[in-house]
Amino acid sequence: MIADPLKIFVTVAELKNFSRAAEELYLSQPSVSLQIRNLENELGSKLINRSPKHLELTQSGEILYSLAKQILQLYEKAKQDINELTTTVTGSLKVGASYTIGEYILPFALAEFAAQFPNVDIDASIANTVEITQAVRSNHLDLALVEGEVNHPDLDIQALMDDEIILVVPNQHALARLPIVTADHLQDRVWILRESGSGTRDFSDKLIKDWNINVKKSHIFGSSQAVKQAVIAGLGIALVSSWIVRKELAAKELTAIRIKGKRLIRTFSIIRLKNNEMSKAMNVFTENLLSHDLISSLIDNNPSVLD
């Protein structure tokens, strides 16, 4: 360290003893003596008068001692200031999320981040998966959290966590009396669906197609909240993220039905433009999202509603 010789000199001057200074600094006495001699040679002046009984600073030593104390203090401050350049997170963060994540996960993640890094200005946007993905690709958002499959070669995609999709029905619905249903039970039903472009809509459409389910009639709503309320009102059945109906299921406002032999899982992902330089705020926010502590806390507080 560039300040080591001055630190050694100051310690010797204050303890007035080479042996005690060496012990304090975890150095050998010859090393301490060598550093003092090197300082004296560099400055061209004797700094310390040594005698068998005592040690005292020369006039040159007194001058160096006074200024060395200041230099060491300034050096420590410089280290702290430079360290803050790499540890203090400032600037802005433009983050987006599709509706399910934006309404039920992002607020908690942002609250934790804002508490740790209050100097970051946060701008959050919520829309469906297609709209949010396009906002990232056009560089209007730094990064985003989306549900379902996203396939664009210009995007960097990281898996965040699994999301369970469940079938919910009105309490008065005929299916609500069944402990478990099969694909046959879902034929010729009225379905509540999200709009095109929604990750949940894509998931529902694929499942209905793969299972060859005939949809008697469908009603389209533009948000997860509206879908949930439509089911509660008795308008039809729906596939939704387990995140959005926890409170309603606990309050027995609607019914979740297990599908025989099926557990419907999709992935929540973090997306950002490839080759874009990440700001400190982006890096730290992404690290927080991917931390096991955050995900474990979210999952522990939101267990599967069908377990």
UniProtKB/TrEMBL annotation:
InterPro entries given in the database record: LysR_HTH_N, LysR_subst-bd, WH-like_DNA-bd_sf, WH_DNA-bd_sf
CDD domains listed in its UniProt record: PBP2_CysL_like (cd08420)
Gene3D superfamilies: 3.40.190.290, Winged helix-like DNA-binding domain superfamily/Winged helix DNA-binding domain
Protein name: LysR family transcriptional regulator
Family matches, as PANTHER family: HTH-TYPE TRANSCRIPTIONAL REGULATOR, HTH-TYPE TRANSCRIPTIONAL REGULATOR CYSL
Keyword DNA-binding listed: yes
All residue ranges annotated as the HTH lysR-type domain in the record: 1-58
Keywords for the protein's UniProt record, in alphabetical order: DNA-binding, Transcription, Transcription regulation
UniProt family annotation: Belongs to the LysR transcriptional regulatory family.
Pfam families linked to this entry: HTH_1 (PF00126), LysR_substrate (PF03466)
Record has Transcription regulation as a keyword: yes
